[in-house]
Amino acid sequence: KNEVEQSPQNLTAQEGEFITINCSYSVGISALHWLQQHPGGGIVSLFMLSSGKKKHGRLIATINIQEKHSSLHITASHPRDSAVYICAAGRGYHDMRFGAGTRLTVKP
Amino acid sequence: DAGVIQSPRHEVTEMGQEVTLRCKPISGHDYLFWYRQTMMRGLELLIYFNNNVPIDDSGMPEDRFSAKMPNASFSTLKIQPSEPRDSAVYFCASSRSRGQYFGPGTRLLVL
User: Fold this and answer.
1) A8 to each of A4, A55, A74, A105, how far by Cα in Å?
2) Residue among A33, A44, A100 minimizing CB distance to B42
3) Which three-class secondary structure state does DSSP give residue B25?
4) What would the pLDDT profile of B25-77 be if each residue is shown by its tens digit?
């Protein structure tokens, strides 16, 4: 079993829909990271969180430490949100174990 | 700032050849990371440095891989000899405290 599991693997949505991507981890962590990988391959760090919730624009990340679960939400999705979203569990702030990623496609 | 700079962006080589990937971190960042991404295994941490010192190289697949950071503004990842299974995208990232900034990656193809 992988240390970090993401679901779903693939997700297709219509523009404007609310999107949720889930991440479960089995290791003890110091922080949970969400990354976005664009179709061209570039990777952007979206969030690093160790408790509660963080919000940036239309993106919200939450974490439940007791349940070892995190979610990434996108409100009012847009085609430009189409990307692969990767969850990573940080055993230290820098030692990351990655999920397989969720490929999101938002159709206009 | 120009961000994390990696070179080359693409590399095609033949099995058995030496490959050197280069990375220039963001100025002022004291952590540097090397990652590998493949379809089969996804993203994997290979090694990371703090203040130019290797901290954790447990992700380096085998002795054919080596990484150095001679100064705060430059790091190399070397594969010698290269094998077809090393074909992947190699990312470098840097960090000052929290959150990491990724370079554009080097796409390596070993024939």
Assistant:
1) 13, 21, 14, 12
2) A100
3) coil
4) 999 999 999 999 998 889 999 999 999 999 989 889 889 999 999 999 999 99
Torsion A83-B57-B10-B6 (CA) sign: positive
- Kindly state the tokens that stand for B35: 């990652």
Among B24, B33, B29, B31, which residue's Cα sits nearest to residue B5?
B24
- Whether A47 and A90 have beta carbons less than 8 Å apart is answered as no
Which residue does chain A place closest to B41, by CA atoms? Answer: A100
Nearest-angstrom CA–CA distance, B43 and B89: 9
Nearest to B43 among A31, A93, A98 (CB): A98
B31 near A94, Cβ under 8 Å?
Answer: yes
Which residue of A37, A87, A94 to mutate against B (max B Cβ within 10 Å)? Answer: A94
| DSSP secondary structure code for residue A1 in this structure | -
Give me the amino acid identity at A31.
A
CB B91 within 8 Å of CB B37: yes
pLDDT for the residue A1? 62
Phi/psi for A71 (5° steps) reads -130, 145
